[in-house]
């Protein structure tokens, strides 16, 4: 989004043709499409985002709503993005170039590309890589602002977690995930009974169209008032415990393709479609049990000397002159020395990267030669590996996350609505 004064100035610029000055033709370069507090949305931004959506839809053979309906949704998204970025600026949330580069590199790796190949793929699609890069920065900031702002609106008590854990034990449907699509027929601000009835009729019409086989994504993009309208109303995969209660109560006995609703909420009438159903897989993790001896270099103890000391200790262990645990108690630094260097059972990923990589090369009862981590110099004894069913272990964390997810979507929508209600928003009519 641009500075208001600069953009308004830009929107008045004229390009003069090579004709004499008295016959110069005026050509509008850009214009302000909407004013959001002290910021603006340019017509070019709306056009660019519409083009991006159309290009992606063409590549995936996805149908789209009319240009007018698409423009409304694009404008709404840009308004929300602008408001969130303004809040982010007030909160001091920033994404540095280094952080952005790391994110772009990770995105490339996830698609089996180098960063240069990712850049070229964006260019090949006819898009500007710099604009694409900045859109990722905006998404990162927007996500952080949303999480920070919505998180403070959510409170989950220990009792709620315990209650959910108990109900999870009783529900056979706990092992089922649902891929849901959602369309929100939103209430107007301060809607009266007549307006609510009109929205109910609209929701009924949407359900009728869906039951006749109409494209869910297209209808969501053109009709939904939810923040995910431009992604076709896709809510992703959710366990029944992660859904809003009003949704989960309707899932029993339903099958793929069923359309549910209209469901009245505080925001409007929801229409939900079950896009797919799958069974939940058991979560298994590998844990290792290791002991270590740590020596930290100092201004007096050099790196070389610390490494040599550990090699001497390892030689004694291999020669049978002392046990690993005894030497750990005598020489190791840190809190584990008192227990013979024993680190207990844990996932390897929790350790320093160098320590984790060393463990990955070891077999049970093997010792690792001295190596450096961010903490100092180590030798390791690997005493065990095991694969465990982490489902029970992770249930409490899952229960909290389910309750959080259940509230997050509703609170995010309320937060966005409140933010918009408190903002100055003026959308100008499209120039024909």
The dominant shape is elongated
CATH level 1 class label of the domain at 172-281 and 411-427: Alpha Beta
If helices are DSSP runs of H or I spanning 4 or more residues, what is the number of helices? 14
CATH topology of the domain at 172-281 and 411-427: Chitinase A, domain 3
Structural class: alpha+beta
Uncertain spans = 1-23
Number of strands: 12
Write a concise keyword list for the protein shown above.
432 residues, alpha+beta, Chitinase A, domain 3, 4-stranded antiparallel sheet, 14 helices, 47% helix, 20% strand, elongated, disordered N terminus
Itemize the secondary structure elements and their pairings.
Layout: E1 2-3, H1 4-10, E2 32-36, E3 39-42, H2 43-59, H3 67-91, H4 97-110, H5 115-124, H6 129-151, H7 158-170, E4 176-186, H8 193-211, H9 216-223, E5 234-239, H10 245-248, E6 259-264, E7 268-279, E8 284-295, H11 303-318, H12 324-331, E9 342-346, H13 353-360, E10 367-372, E11 377-389, H14 391-421, E12 425-427
Helix pairs in contact: 2-3, 3-6, 6-14, 7-14
């Amino acid at each position: 989004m641009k500075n208001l004064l600069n953009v308004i100035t830009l929107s008045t610029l004229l390009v003069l043709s090579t004709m004499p000055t008295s016959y110069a033709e005026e050509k509008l370069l850009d214009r302000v499409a909407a004013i959001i507090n002290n910021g603006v949305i340019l017509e070019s931004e709306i056009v660019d985002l519409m083009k991006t959506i159309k290009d992606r839809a063409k590549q995936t053979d996805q149908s789209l709503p009319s240009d007018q309906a698409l423009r409304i949704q694009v404008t709404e998204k840009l308004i929300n993005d602008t408001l969130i970025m303004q809040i982010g600026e007030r909160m001091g949330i920033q994404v540095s170039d280094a952080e952005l580069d790391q994110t772009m590199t990770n995105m490339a790796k996830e698609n089996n590309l180098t960063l240069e190949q990712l850049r070229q793929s964006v260019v090949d699609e006819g898009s500007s890589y710099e604009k694409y890069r900045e859109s990722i920065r905006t998404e990162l900031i927007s996500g952080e602002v949303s999480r920070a702002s919505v998180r403070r609106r959510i409170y989950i008590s220990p009792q709620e977690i315990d209650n959910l854990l108990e109900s999870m034990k009783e529900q056979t449907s706990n092992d089922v995930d649902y891929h849901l699509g959602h369309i929100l027929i939103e209430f107007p601000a301060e809607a009266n009974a007549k307006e609510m009835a009109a929205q109910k009729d609209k929701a009924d019409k949407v359900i009728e169209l869906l039951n006749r086989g109409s494209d869910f994504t297209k209808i969501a993009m053109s009709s939904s008032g939810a923040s995910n309208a431009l992604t076709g109303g896709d809510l992703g995969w959710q366990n029944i415990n992660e859904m809003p209660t009003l949704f989960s109560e309707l899932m029993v006995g339903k099958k793929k393709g069923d359309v549910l609703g209209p469901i009245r909420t505080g925001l409007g009438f929801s229409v939900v479609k079950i896009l797919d159903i799958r069974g939940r897989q058991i979560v298994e993790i590998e844990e290792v049990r290791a002991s270590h001896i740590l020596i930290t270099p100092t201004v007096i103890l050099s790196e070389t000397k610390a490494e040599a000391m550990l090699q001497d200790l390892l030689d004694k262990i291999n020669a049978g002159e002392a046990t690993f645990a005894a030497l750990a108690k005598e020489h190791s630094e840190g809190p584990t020395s008192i227990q013979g260097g024993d680190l207990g059972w844990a996932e390897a990923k929790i350790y320093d990267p160098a320590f984790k990589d060393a463990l990955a090369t070891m077999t049970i009862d093997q010792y690792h030669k001295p190596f450096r981590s961010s903490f100092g110099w180590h030798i390791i004894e690997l005493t065990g590996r095991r694969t465990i069913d982490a489902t029970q272990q992770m249930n409490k964390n899952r229960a909290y996350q389910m309750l959080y997810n259940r509230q997050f979507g509703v609170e995010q929508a309320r937060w966005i609505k409140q933010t918009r209600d408190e903002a100055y928003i003026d959308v100008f009519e499209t120039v024909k």
